[in-house]
Amino acid sequence: MKPVVAIVGRPNVGKSTLFNRLTRSRAALVADFPGLTRDRHYGEGRIGPREYIVIDTGGFEPATGKGGAEGIVREMAAQTEQAIAECDVVIFVLDAREGLTGQDARIAKRLRVAGRPVTLAVNKAEGLTEQSAAEFHELGLGEPRLISAAHGDGVQELMHTALVGLAEAPEDDSESEAQSADKRIRVAVVGRPNVGKSTLINALLGEQRLITFDQPGTTRDSIEIDFDYDGQKFTLIDTAGLRRRGKVFETIEKFSVVKTLQSIADSNVVILLLDAACEIADQDAHIAGFVLESGRAMVVAVNKWDGLDSYQRERITREIERKLHFLRWARFHQVSARKRTGLKPMMRSVTEAYRAAFVRLPTPKLTRALMAAVARQQPARAGHSRPKPRYAHQGGHNPPIIVVHGNSLNQVADSYRRYLEGQFREQFDLTGTPLRVEFRTSRNPYV
Predict the structure, then answer these.
(1) pTM exceeds 0.90
(2) Which residues lie closer than 8 Å to 24 by C-beta, 6 or more apart?
(3) What's the confidence (pLDDT) of residue 331?
(4) Is 86 in contact with 6 (CB distance < 8 Å)?
(5) CB under 8 Å to 229, separation ≥6 — which residues?
(6) Is 123 exposed, middle or buried (0-12, 13-18, 19+ CB in 10 A)?
(7) CA dihedral sign, ordered 194, 284, 227, 118
(8) What 3 state SS string does 245-264 have?
(9) CATH 3.30.1330.100 applies to domain 363-441
(10) Same topology for domains 183-356 and 363-441, yes or no?
(11) Residue 393 has what pLDDT?
C-alpha cells in the first residue's frame, strides 16, 4: 500500500495550494477565501521514485458549536477527522505571516492524541528566516519547516521528512493502478444547487463520504471518488450546483462553475439530477444543453420521487417531456437518493450509455444501414438534383460520429439529418449518447 498523507490546518493557510503542488495538478480549487475546501480530496504524489496518496481537507475546527453556519463547520471537521483516521502521517500547515493562533493550538491539541506522526509545515515563508518559525516550537509537535506551497520552496524536503519510517509501495503498483484507472468510467453528477448530488453519491458509496447540508452551495469543488459497483469500476465526480448566470455573483461560485464545466468535459457519462419536489426549471434545460454540446453520454435521474403523490408525478412527467424533449435519446430514472431506491437501474443505464458512446461501428454495417434508410426515404430534391448518399464510416467516439459521403450532400436538410440519426440509433442501439451525423460531398472532377 502507498503511504497516505493528510494535510490539515485552519482555513486559508494554503492546504489546497500544497495539495496541488504535491499532486502536480490543479485538482483542488484555490482562491484567497477561507473555507473554500469542504470535502476530502484525494490525489497521488511522488518524491523521486517514491509514491504516496495525499488528502486535502477543509479548515479544521475541533471545537464546534451548534446551528447555522457552524453546522457546516462541524461537517467539515468530521471530514478532517476521517482523513486523520485514514492517513499514515499528518502534515499540519501553519501560516508564517499570521503567526501562531488559538485555533492552531486547538488543532495541535487534537493531533497529539490522534496517534499519527505529525510534521509541521510553516507556509507562506517566502523571504523569511528560520527565526520566523521559532514561535511554532511551543506546539510541541517537532521541528517546524518553512515552506512556500505557491513557489515550491522547501516542499521536497518537507515530504522527505514526513515519509521517513513509512513503508514504500511495490514498484509495479503504479503500472497496474494506471491500467485500472484507464478502465474506470468517469461519471459526473450535475444539476442545480440543492437537488441532492452529494446525497446521491453517498447513497451509491454506502457511507457519508461527502458533506450533505440543507443549504444550496454546500459543494464548491469537484470531488473525484473511485468505487466499484456490480463488478464495474467507476470514478464518481461530485460537482457544484449550476445556477443561472445572472444569479452568480460571488467569486467563489464563479470558480465552482468553471470546475463543474471542466468536470463535464473530462467525464465519460453525465448524470443530470433533477428535483422532483420542484418544478423543472429552464436552468435544468440549459445544463442539459451544455452537456449535449459537450457530446457526453447522459442519464437523467429524477430525485425525491418518493415524496410525490400520483398527481404530482404525472405533472412532473409532463414537465420533463415538454422542457427536455431534446433528450429523448437518454434514459430517465425515478430515484430517491435518501432512501437509496432506483439506483441499480440508473447505474446499469450509465454503463450502457458508456458502451454506446465508445461503440465501434464497422464501415460495411454503417453503409448497409445508410442504404436501407435511403431506400426507405430519400433526401428531398434541391433544385434540379437530389442529394445522393453513397457510404458511411465512423469518424470518432464519445460521442459517436458518423460521416456520410456522397454527392450534393451540402444541400441535405436538417430534418433528413435527424431522420438518419434516428435510423442509426435504432439500428445500433445507441441509447444514452449524443450522435453526430456529418456530410461530406465528393468533389466533382468535371467542374
Answers:
(1) no
(2) 45, 46
(3) 92
(4) yes
(5) 204, 347
(6) buried
(7) negative
(8) HHHCCCHHHHHHHHHHHHHH
(9) no
(10) no
(11) 93
Three-state helix/strand/coil letters over 101-116 = CHHHHHHHHHHHCCCC
Angle, alpha carbons 435-436-441 (nearest 5°) = 150
CB 303 within 8 A of CB 195: yes
Contacts of 282-287 with C-beta under 8 Å, sequence gap 24+, read 282/244, 282/323, 283/192, 283/242, 283/243, 283/244, 284/191, 284/192, 284/323, 284/324, 285/323, 285/324, 286/242, 286/244, 287/190, 287/191, 287/192, 287/242
pLDDT digits over 397-427, tens only?
888 999 999 888 888 888 999 999 999 999 9
User: Residues of the chain whose pLDDT is less than 50?
Assistant: 31, 64-69, 174, 176-181, 213, 215-218, 220, 245-253
In this structure, which amino acid lies at residue 35? G
Strand order in the sheet with 331-334: 223-229, 232-238, 185-190, 269-275, 297-303, 331-334
- Residue 213's pLDDT is 45
Domain map of the chain by residue range? 4-173, 183-356, 363-441
Pairing of strands 41-47, 331-334: unpaired
- The pLDDT of residue 446: 58
> Which CATH fold would you assign to the domain 4-173?
Rossmann fold (3.40.50)
Alpha carbons 299 and 431: distance in angstroms, whole number: 10
Architecture of domain 183-356: 3-Layer(aba) Sandwich (3.40)
Q: Give the three cell numbers for residue 3.
A: 503511504
